[in-house]
Amino acid sequence: MSSSEKTLRRDAAENRQRLLDAAATVFTERGLDVGVDEIASAAGVGVGTLYRRFPTKDALVSELVRQVLEDFVALAGEALSAPRGEGLEQVLYGTGAILASHRGFLSRMWNDDETAALRDEYRRILFELLDRAKQHNHIREDATESDLDLLFWSLRGVISTTRGVTDKGWRRTMAVMIAGLRPEAEALDSPPMRAEDSAKIMAQLHPR
Fold first, then answer.
1. Angle in degrees, CA 32, 36, 41, rounded to 5
2. At what angle are helices 145-161 and 87-101 packed, to 10 degrees?
3. Please, what is the average pLDDT of the chain?
4. Which of 23, 48, 125, 207 is deepest in the core (most CB within 10 A)?
5. Cβ neighbour number for residue 117 with a 10 Å cutoff
6. pLDDT level of residue 5 (50, 70, 90 thresholds)
7. Cα–Cα distance between 131 and 19 in angstroms, integer?
8. What is the pLDDT of residues 98-123, one digit of tens each?
9. Which of 140, 144, 147 is nearest to 187 (CA)?
10. Which residues, other chains included, contact 103 with Cβ-Cβ below 8 Å and sequence gap of 6+?
């Protein structure tokens, strides 16, 4: 490969990443309704360059979602090495921080067909961390996988509602919910959500 070809490839890769970075910033600030021309402008490239890298706006959003879910899987994988069942709490706060920094496209975070395998892998590790936390008496024994689903659905609402006002709301919410998951917390007078109900909701949120 000639030096000029290498330069062209490097420039293309840099433009692609600039577009992704700009899209993440613009979506976080203003939501998914922003036009591609504004994203291209924020990246310092032309709209034609954007369409050469991402043929549709949907393709651009899907790539952003893929990158975020890769971060989730890496975070969860690292937490498996945490001692005494502490990995679950580590992942909960880490996931919250990632979600909060990408709040502009939360609605697409879990319902993108292209990234279903990453989403499933993240959930598999998350539920393994839940089992370890219960084994080490770090989380109450009656905590279920559906409790974690409810936690994240609640967190998504808080992050969306507080967008542009404060970044502290989701952390407080997470702390309150984790406190309720502690073994020493009071007994719960409501049974856990049934696994089949959780699966039904997940199917509605993430249609294949």
1. 115
2. 30
3. 89
4. 23
5. 10
6. very low
7. 40
8. 998 888 877 777 777 778 899 999 99
9. 140
10. 28, 159, 160, 163
* Separation CA 174–CA 70 (nearest Å): 22
The three-class DSSP label of residue 112 is: coil
**Spatial separation of the C-alpha atoms in residues 95 and 151, rounded to whole Å:** 11
Portion of the chain with pLDDT greater than 90, in percent: 67
φ, ψ (nearest 5 deg) of residue 83: -80, 160
Residue positions counted in the chain: 208
Spatial contact of 158 and 112, defined as CB atoms under 8 Å apart:
no
Among 68, 90, 64, smallest CA distance to 78 is for 90
- CA–CA distance, 78 with 88 (Å, rounded to integer): 11
